[in-house]
Design brief:
single chain; 148 residues; mainly alpha; 3 domains; 6 helices; 51% helix; 0% strand
Length: 148
């Protein structure tokens, strides 16, 4: 219960003691609202969610892991940024250029993308756009050609 009290204060600015105050106190807290806040307002790294996960026995975790995945779960903005960093590190680690990056880290709710080969016209169009952008912003393309 200490985890819930601390998380409600930290993430929601709500005093759990309001639950027992007349009218739900300043937060107008009810048992229904408390459940909603715990289920949907607290992030996965909260003490409450961590305590909930820690209560699941190993056998049940193994059973859950074998079930088909329902949905993709919630990702925070930080999670999405971290996935982007992983993608860019994959580019750097492989020594590849950004024009031919490795497959992106899977994101929730997005199917894996298949890369389509560009037509010669598509390659020419992208090369022209890159040259124009480099010229406009005054940088080198890094492929031996100078902008402008």
């Amino acid at each position: 219960m200490a985890e819930v009290e601390a998380d409600l204060q930290r993430y929601c600015g709500i005093d759990l003691r309001d639950l027992w105050r007349p009218g739900g106190g300043a937060a107008r807290l009810t048992y229904r609202r408390l459940k909603v806040l715990i289920d949907y307002a607290l992030p996965g790294e909260s003490a409450t969610k961590t305590a909930q996960r820690d209560e699941i026995p190993d056998e049940q975790l193994a059973k859950i892991a074998r079930l088909p995945q329902e949905g993709h779960g919630r990702w925070s903005h930080s999670d999405l940024l971290l996935a982007r960093v992983i993608d860019l590190l994959g580019v750097v680690a492989s020594g590849m250029r950004l024009k031919d990056p490795p497959a992106p880290w899977p994101r929730p709710g997005l199917p894996a993308r298949r890369r389509r080969a560009l037509s010669p016209e598509g390659h020419a169009y992208l090369a022209r756009i890159r040259r124009e952008h480099a010229e406009l912003h005054g940088y080198s393309l890094g492929d031996g050609t100078e902008a402008g």
